[in-house]
Amino acid sequence: MPRRPQTMELPSIGALDRSAGQLGRQLTQALRDAIRSGALKPGEPLPSTRHLAKSLGLARGTASEAFEQLIAEGFLEAHSRAGTRVATTLTDLRPARARAGKRVETAAPPRLSQAATTIANVSRQFAPLPPIPFAVSVPTGPAAPDDVWRRLGNRIRARGPGAPSGYDDPHGVPVLREAIADYVRRSRSVRCSADQVVVTTGTQQGLYIACQVLLDPSDTAWVEDPAYRGITGILESMGRKDRMISVPVDHAGIDVDAGIAMAKHARAAFVTPSHQYPLGVPMSMGRRSALLAWARSNDAWIVEDDYDSELRYSGHPFPSLQGLAPDRVVYLGTFSKILFPSLRLGYAIVPDALVPAFCGGRNLIDRHSPSADQHVLAAFIAEGHLERHIRRIRGVYADRREQLIAMLARWIPKELGWLQPSDQGMHLMLWLAKDINDELAALRALESGVAVRAVSPMYSPGNGQPGLILGLGGFSNEQMEAAVRQLAAVLMTVRKRKPLASQRVSKNPLNGSLSRR
Amino acid sequence: MPRRPQTMELPSIGALDRSAGQLGRQLTQALRDAIRSGALKPGEPLPSTRHLAKSLGLARGTASEAFEQLIAEGFLEAHSRAGTRVATTLTDLRPARARAGKRVETAAPPRLSQAATTIANVSRQFAPLPPIPFAVSVPTGPAAPDDVWRRLGNRIRARGPGAPSGYDDPHGVPVLREAIADYVRRSRSVRCSADQVVVTTGTQQGLYIACQVLLDPSDTAWVEDPAYRGITGILESMGRKDRMISVPVDHAGIDVDAGIAMAKHARAAFVTPSHQYPLGVPMSMGRRSALLAWARSNDAWIVEDDYDSELRYSGHPFPSLQGLAPDRVVYLGTFSKILFPSLRLGYAIVPDALVPAFCGGRNLIDRHSPSADQHVLAAFIAEGHLERHIRRIRGVYADRREQLIAMLARWIPKELGWLQPSDQGMHLMLWLAKDINDELAALRALESGVAVRAVSPMYSPGNGQPGLILGLGGFSNEQMEAAVRQLAAVLMTVRKRKPLASQRVSKNPLNGSLSRR
């Protein structure tokens, strides 16, 4: 077959840019593109390197190198007699519709799995909020860890085990596990050794690994109703929605008798005993012991999400469930809230029998947490900085909390919203009047610069109550007050039309609520 | 009912330690322990605070505070007339066997799920190796990122977006996504926008999210045979072992025709085209186009694990599969190998349609990567340090690789082990004689201070070939040579008894191999 130098009359080859240099690489890419686009077809012969080099004004060696590279990549084939051709082993690389002469962009998009759709939808419901009032846990001003954290980090990263290194143990670095075990024994009555500590990236990963490890395909699990969307989202994304039992929460925490009536033989219960999320109530001692008795008699696990337990504003905190039954409870803690979320470090305290599976789960998901930060945190705890930081921000949060409670009382008409009593944590729970759509309110609030989270989607279908979660933290009193006033205006706007009394409120919201106080 | 002060004759109460201070807290804890242990039983009355304080030599207020705390916790109940009692709502907190008078430690351990057992077992097979030759990717000496990394980190963490902050977007910080998109477009012919980049903690998490997102319960997936244990481990841990199709790999990569014959309608193929793991061969262009053609005609996804692609020692690297079919390919990259594993940062480049699901999957697993490191890495790439680092270590690795190849030729008798040809990557693949048990060899090697990974467990059952993976990197020539000699000795020890010729080798291993060279 004769050589066909005219195949080089391709627009893509004409585009070599002499000023950009690397002409050989440009030529290689241009030939690749021509083959991919179908301008050069499988089996088609190429000009000789001599001919090609001459026509493009290149050194012959440059053309030869391009050919050699494309032969190595399998785009071209060298035939001793027939010269170089586009490889005949190449299946046409263009999408089917492009081959049929249609535009590539109009090709039917690949089908998504059900899982992809579920995961995208679920996750949207607990996407992060922007760092404006009342996003939870925004560390600025006195709520942020001070320069000690940064200086310690610079020192520890410089050398030793904090410096760049190879793959680490999924279990977590030993010095951090020791520091965490000490800390939770002292502050949370958790009974554990450092071997039972598995370092995580935070509560979310702890919950994920617990679901992965504790549940077989046919097992059911209790969750609270309402619940943290992080845990119900995981179970839904794993295709376990039908085996997720939403057990009602009342003023004393999860209703264990109701859970037993609904699904006695569940394999695990996911609970937030210190400070129920989202309602903020602690689980009573009676409920704690009933829950443990159920777990023992049914050979079930309890997963205790002890988020925010450091921030109790009156009395000592409740002791952990784990301390009452270390063989039955997986205890989850995090430094995201108390230090800063962007750190991504937390921990699971697990019964000895579960340690290999938790480490294995971590290894499969993402191997381990960045080592340098683990060493920095270990030093931060061991040198006493963490407990000093907690004492400091407990005061900061207590003060902001009181301020926010007063502002809400002042600006939110009490028939529109009222607070759930609670004495702990980084958020307040504002119940809303039944005729307010809390999701719509959250959306409108965000549009006007206020970040709140709606509570109703945290309930099982049909049981939703309207309410909003307001985070405390990195906001000044001025920011909070402006946001509360804005929120009050939003609530009145989204409230459904009501006869007389309510309409008067919405006509003059701020005065109305002031006079009502 | 009369008060029974004798209930206070409990050993735990006698143990109050005056020198330690916080007597109120000690008393609270002692009472809690007495209730938990059953020494104080539900409904049992307590002495008055006056009586108790007197008998313990405490201020009455201290005893009152302890009672109030325990009432708040639900351990005690206050009755206006009958005084304070242990709460009757408390179910007995002791494990059943302890109640029956047996030792707590002998209680039957909770039953583990099948999942827990599977995960622990699977994970053991790709647990990290200690940082001794020939662990993969140990960054020391000239292979470690230099002081630029540390100084840049200190600067970026000090202020701005690198400082401690709140929850971030699971997608990854925009400046890092831009830097990654630029980098992969330039170096790997990947076609993408920054919106298609999802920051991960490395390839392992990229694979995990891909499995989570791409596959519905009944879907099958192709994996390579042999394969990276990270991917087959994920699928096994998800209960998908029966729907995992192990497609043979030959000198040209995965055998697409074999895959089609085995499971044409698979939903995804997980491949390592640049440098097959563990064999080290690149996928030929013919196979690449056949794989893409299959994916298009069957509406399947391809997951391209492009680990080690930066380290090609001759010619340009192959272009990525992603660049040939951006709508069908999920491209996974990592900075673990090229920078350092303890950093835990990588990326997935995904088709637009999959972006929400990948971000959602990340959000459910662990929300996002630590923000500070993302900003440091973004600056490291944007300021050109990454590409300088890659150029530098490419030379370092090429040199060490040549040295190691020479050492292996010198010390390993060629009938015991021979190298798989390859021109890329951070490891060499040493095939072993059929009569050597590679798992036993790896175990014995580790006992004698040499870390290698056996290849046979990476094959589907029954197809295993014995071989060892030897990582390059943070080891001096002296370390490598000593380790190779040790490895040669180990191989001769574990080899099964053979007639004559082989026995002569094992009698005088080093001379034997020297003379054979």
Shape of chain A: elongated
Strands across the major sheet of chain A, in which order? Answer: 3-10-9-8-7-4-5-6
| Spatial gap, N to C terminus of chain A | 96 Å
Name the structural class of chain A. alpha/beta
From the alpha-carbon coordinates, what is the Rg of chain A to the nearest angstrom?
A: 31 Å
Summarize the main sheet of chain A. Answer: 8 strands, mixed
Give the assembly state of these chains: homodimer
Specify which chain pair forms the largest interface: A-B, 129 and 127 residues
Question: What fraction, in percent, of the residue positions of chain A are helical?
Answer: 40-55%
Number of helices of chain A: 20
Question: Can you characterise this structure?
Answer:
The structure is a homodimer of 517-residue chains. By secondary structure, the first copy, chain A, is an alpha/beta fold. Helix content of chain A is 43%, strand content 12%. Chain A is built from 20 helices and 14 strands. In chain A, the strands form 3 sheets. Chain A has an 8-stranded mixed beta sheet, with helices on both faces. Chain A has a 4-stranded antiparallel beta sheet with strand order 11-12-14-13, with helices on one face. Chain A has a two-stranded antiparallel sheet with strand order 1-2. In chain A, a hairpin with a 7-residue loop joins strand 11 and strand 12. In chain A, helix 16 crosses helix 18 and helix 17 crosses helix 18. Chain A starts with 10 loop residues before the first helix and ends with a helix.
